[in-house]
Amino acid sequence: MAGSKESFASLLGLKETLRIQSEERAKAAAEEEKRKKERQAKAHEFENAMKKLGVKPVKLHNDVVHHEKAKPDPYPRQTKLDNEAVLTDSLSDHINADLYLDSDERLSYRAKNMAPDIPKKLRAGTWSIKGSLDLHGYTSDEARALLSVFITEQMKAGHRAVRIIHGQGFGSFQKKPVLKERVPGWLIQKKEVLAFVEAPSFDGGAGALYVLLAPL
């Protein structure tokens, strides 16, 4: 009789273990499906963002890339900018931006040929902010590509001052502000960028930059 009770208890324990394992598998599958949908949504969002900036995807057929016949471009400067925007790999992630920043109470940078008062004027609104790019939620590679294309498009539009929102990393892995650290380094490497400063508190503060672009 005792052996029968022990067998029954073991059976109940096994059933409970199997139930828990089944629930855990179902939970893991649901979480994976959720992550998959989030990745798909982010990829779709990135694709739409690139389309808005005028970037068209290259279609591949049997590993052969078909290029449209090149047309004469009356604006060689714009063509040069387009080519540079595509070559985003040339923007290093390992630039120590602190070596190039002005000694200021707030983050600021100016190119070597720019007057010392340019950052102050930029922060004060001497140039109206004409365009804005929000990099929240994008990976480092996506943000770098978007930044290059955005700058090119803004220059074509004749805009001199723009805002780049990189955030403060509160939603990042381990709360590390990856884009906040990398965006200044990317901007310093682009000769089209004449200066940038931390945005005023009412317009993004430490999570955004005002950027002064060279005229086209």
From TrEMBL:
<feature type="region of interest" description="Disordered">
    <location>
        <begin position="23"/>
        <end position="48"/>
    </location>
</feature>
<feature type="domain" description="Smr">
    <location>
        <begin position="133"/>
        <end position="214"/>
    </location>
</feature>
<dbReference type="InterPro" id="IPR002625">
    <property type="entry name" value="Smr_dom"/>
</dbReference>
<dbReference type="Pfam" id="PF01713">
    <property type="entry name" value="Smr"/>
</dbReference>
<protein>
    <submittedName>
        <fullName>DNA mismatch repair protein MutS</fullName>
    </submittedName>
</protein>
<dbReference type="InterPro" id="IPR036063">
    <property type="entry name" value="Smr_dom_sf"/>
</dbReference>
